[in-house]
Write a structure and sequence with these properties.
The protein is mainly alpha-helical. Among the domains are: 42 residues; 43 residues, no CATH class. Helices cover 33% and strands 8% of the residues. The protein has a three-stranded antiparallel beta sheet, with no helix packed on it. β2 and β3 form a beta hairpin. α2 crosses α3. The termini are far apart.
Length: 126
């Protein structure tokens, strides 16, 4: 005959206490030497919830440590994003690679308003 961890009434008490303290199902499973799924199933069968716990405090948003280029500043080749103008400037970045315009591009074009005008005006009709 096979015995379950839940045959022992002390196991259920340990489950209830640890669950209300906020322990994870994996941690409870390790303490009871059973599987995580077994713990989750028992929690649902007992109808336990964690609504009686203290609410978690939301983390304050942290600033990104990576310096983002400001709009309008030249953007190095490796830092260009989807919204940056793709006009290549006559200068090089610190890494020696090409630098893009950095302005916001217009809808339907890879360039900003200024470069779109310049490039379409320079186009010679065939």
């Amino acid at each position: 005959m096979r015995f379950s961890v839940w045959d022992n009434p002390e196991s259920e008490q340990v489950l209830r206490v640890m669950w209300m303290e906020g322990s994870s199902a994996a941690l409870i499973a390790d303490a009871l030497r059973t599987s995580r799924n077994s713990v989750i199933g028992k929690v649902h069968r007992l109808g336990l919830s964690r609504t009686q716990r203290k609410p978690k405090v939301a983390k304050r948003p942290t600033r990104s440590r990576i310096a983002q280029p400001r709009p309008g500043e030249p953007v190095p080749f490796l830092k260009v994003k989807w919204f940056h103008c793709r006009a290549v400037l006559d200068q090089r970045g610190k890494d020696g690679l090409a630098v893009f315009c950095g302005q916001a591009k217009t809808i339907g074009s890879p360039w900003c308003v200024k470069h779109r005008r310049a490039f379409t005006a320079a186009r010679v009709p065939s």
